[in-house]
Amino acid sequence: MTEVNENTVYGGKMNKVVKTVLKVVLIVVLTLTFVFAGYLGYIFLDFHRIGDQALSARGTSSASIYRNREYKLVSYNMGFGAYEADYGFFMDGGTQSWAWSKERLDKNLKSIAALLKEQAADLYFVQEVDFDSTRTYHVDERKYLTSALDKFAYVFAQNYDSPFLFYPFLQPHGSSRSGIMTFSSFPIAGAKRVELPIESGFAKLVDLDRCYSKTRIVLSNGKYLVLYNYHLSAYTSDGTITTDQLKLIIADMEAEYADGNYCVAGGDFNKDILGDSSVYFGKGDKEYTWAKPIPEGIFDGKHVSLVAPLDKDNPVPSCRNADSAYHAGQYVLTIDGFMTTDNVTVVSYAVIDTQFAYSDHNPVSLTFKL
């Protein structure tokens, strides 16, 4: 009779267990690899640019516009209605990826609409207005604004239409469809969406598509007031793409000025338009470098000027870094403002201090004359 070696039997069983475990691990790793590769393929294949488009004006407006009269413009990045004072966004160092709840989103959107109406402006530029986005429960946020500003004509330009983002894993950010709205108390003669340059490679999936809207209002002398509304790139590698975007808008304004038209631009520059906001607001408890200053000389020799809203006696920032709930000492700066051509006289400007109650931005206003 052959003697059975207990160690040999035991070792053989162990080898089978090890092989089984390794096989399972290999299958899991391969499955995850294929899933990840498939997802990367999906987001690259699904990514698309919207391109230049003619925009349709909607709503009604009846006021007439004249030269040498004062008009008020308010620009507001409303943070897709989610950035209440206690909100921190995951891409800014916070934890949230959606609005807190559909109920809180509804309440906040009503507050934003009421705030804009209270400003009694002649013109409004609004950025980050969502419709059919995962992060905002597929609510059409445009309806809140058009309901409050029901005496205005308006145009909507879709800024981006992003693929589904499966991060953060516990609450994926999902797909985002968002844009910019221009409201006018004067009849709109025409409008279009103009594509802006964006980063190439993987970075374009993070920063999404970008554009500016260009809206024309005809004057009694046959010339136009041309309005530029924009939300420039935020999550870029070194800020050069945002500079390129800005140069394109300035060149467009220069061409319109050469034709005798009046140009007013405004929105979210995603650049520190004060040069160094820490001079006025301090460095904050955490230091960030995402908002680069506008490069020197960009307006040299141009008929376009930057209008940065700042009251040096009582400085109010236009933006906070949404790494957490708003608190004293948080990193704040001014990235929202305006540009005008030489035939537009700036009367006054201001940052409207909301204490970031409804967005990570404060609205900014400009009073001007043609």
Which labels suit this protein?
370 residues, alpha+beta, Deoxyribonuclease I, Chain A, seven-stranded mixed β-sheet, 16 strands, elongated
Model description:
By secondary structure, this protein is α+β, with helices and mostly antiparallel strands. It folds into two domains: 1-46; 50-369, Endonuclease/exonuclease/phosphatase (Deoxyribonuclease I, Chain A), CATH 3.60.10. The chain has six helices and 16 strands. It has a seven-stranded mixed β-sheet, with helices on one face. α5 links the parallel β9 (224-231) and β10 (262-268). It is elongated.
SSE layout:
Layout: H1 6-46, E1 53-55, E2 58-59, E3 70-77, H2 102-118, E4 123-130, H3 142-148, E5 153-161, E6 177-184, E7 190-195, H4 203-207, E8 211-218, E9 224-231, H5 240-258, E10 262-268, H6 278-281, E11 304-307, E12 319-320, E13 332-333, E14 336-341, E15 345-351, E16 364-369
Parallel strand pairs: 3-4, 9-10
Antiparallel strand pairs: 1-7, 2-5, 3-16, 4-6, 5-6, 7-8, 8-9, 10-14, 11-14, 12-13, 15-16
Helix pairs in contact: 2-3
Q: Major sheet: size, sense and barrel closure?
A: 7 strands, mixed
Low-confidence stretches: none
In DSSP terms (H or I, runs of 4 or more residues), the helix count works out at: 6
Mean pLDDT: 91
The coarse silhouette is elongated
CATH superfamily of the largest domain: Endonuclease/exonuclease/phosphatase
Rg over C-alpha atoms, rounded to the nearest angstrom: 25 Å
Quote the distance from N terminus to C terminus. Answer: 111 Å
The structural class is: alpha+beta
The first-level CATH class of the largest domain is given as: Alpha Beta
Number of domains: 2
Order of helices and strands: HEEEHEHEEEHEEHEHEEEEEE
